[in-house]
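During the no-cost extension, the postdoctoral fellow (Dr. R.K.) reprocessed legacy sequence entries with the updated structure-token encoder. One reprocessed record is reproduced below for audit purposes.
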Amino acid sequence: MRIGMVTEGGYPYLNGEAGLWCDRLVRGLGRHEFDVYALSRSRQQEDEGWVPLPPHVGRVRTAPLWTAEDVKVPWGRRARRRFADCYAELVGSVGAVSDDQADRFTSALYGLAELARDEGGLAGALRSETAVRALEHACRTPSAPRAAREARVPDLLAVAAHFERALRPLSLDWYDDDGLGSADLCHATAGGPAALPGLLASHFCDVPLLVTEYGVRLRSHYLASADATPAVRTLLASFHGRLAAEVYRRAALLTPGNAHARRWQERCGADRARIRTVHPGMEAARFAEVGDAPDQADPGTLVWVGRVEPARDLVSLLHAFAEVRREEPGARLRIVGAPGGAEGEAYLAQCRALAAQLFPDEADGVHAVGDNPVSFEEIGSPQAPALAEVYASAAVTVLSSVVEGFPVSLVEAMFCGRATVSTDVGAVVEVIGGTGLVVPPRNPRALAEACVALLRDPERRERLGAAARARALELFTVEQNITAFHGIYLEIVAHSPVHRVVLDDTGEPLPFAVPAEAHLPGRWTRPLSRVVARGVPSWASGPPVRATPVPAPAAVPATEEAR
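Re-encoded structure tokens follow.
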């Protein structure tokens, strides 16, 4: 079958979110054809190039989310009126307090999409004074929330600019028979802007939509607007909530990566019957050697691995380790990871200063060089040449986050057969499943007590590590991820009607022209005559074959008729 994969800020670009699992999925499903529709987030990402693509990726179409081109052809009065009406309905549904605005929102959204297809884009209109005035009118109505009614001009401009960025996929030319309309299935690898092209492909071309969320995009929008004014926060939350609800309603199936994401989807109205939890697939082979030799660990070493940023709460970890050192003076802590951006750099400097304050360099004698029990390292440095070697040195692997989606470092430690101590955030409990210790977040004392308990009990560490490795190999490998999506693809296509229309020589629809096995990869199916509408996969694009004419009945001789 042909899969239209829609990504945002990830695959096939070298750097970005979800790029690795998308690449593994595409390579693992070599019997299917893939067309990639990629939304980029920055010019730098585009300039860095793509990962090598396998041969069954037919084409890649890209579009920037970080900029928009103005429509050079001026609109007529009718088009301007259509935009004003649709946009007023959209922002009116966003600014209404009542929960019965879903139909109003979706009708306006698809109206804008149809206008964009007719006029060649919406970028200029979405940034126009008409858009800002419509938003202002929606905020001043009696049905608007109190916070929205208090919106000032800067608030209205900020919200209008955000709506313009979020609605840029409406202006793309992907929604025809040469684009997503030719796919048997559209797979959106995230919610939000990545799911909007799939939503429009479903609307215009009846292409079934599969939405995968390993991180909850709606939650990310809520957190991103936490520092905004109440008016901006209220309007953005309403917009993204209604968009997420429509995506979940229209999708044929939803595949959250964990129970945490699943609960968010259900809270937004997703049907439980259409949700299939598929855990991310991770490469286990590079940790096999460490997992087979659990005795390589340093008995007194705690290891933390991840990206250094405030959400990882390394401050609490350092305070917890201070208590661990009081109980176990020989313990050491390795913090391994690179800072995430400028904020991460500042946070790393703060953590280094705190470590120097909590643990002055210690020396065995007056003539020895002091040594700090806390080390900050990065993968590839002489101290940490490879990730597997870092986990090999760990008696206990620690995760101290206050915000976490799917804990990748935790699964890597489980592949290595290491006991873990984690905070109860995100999908941690679901991933651990009883094979490690879990404590409340922002609780250094509880974190220290759990670490000390495992450091003093090597047999318990070994039992937990073996159980964790068995669980990770069963649930979180690349192979199980590929197998799950292969079955889901077949399930969706099996329940979706074939929308290609085959005509005979007279122009009439030819019944039973597309056999059932047309959904299976192979070269035995060809259209019987002229195909219209959504197009055909490349393996069914041979020359048309005329139907065999029915021979006329032979003339009966008169003598035979007399008999």
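Confidence is low (pLDDT under 50) at residues 522-548, 555-563. DSSP finds 22 helices and 14 strands in the chain. The remaining legacy entries will be reprocessed before the final report is submitted.
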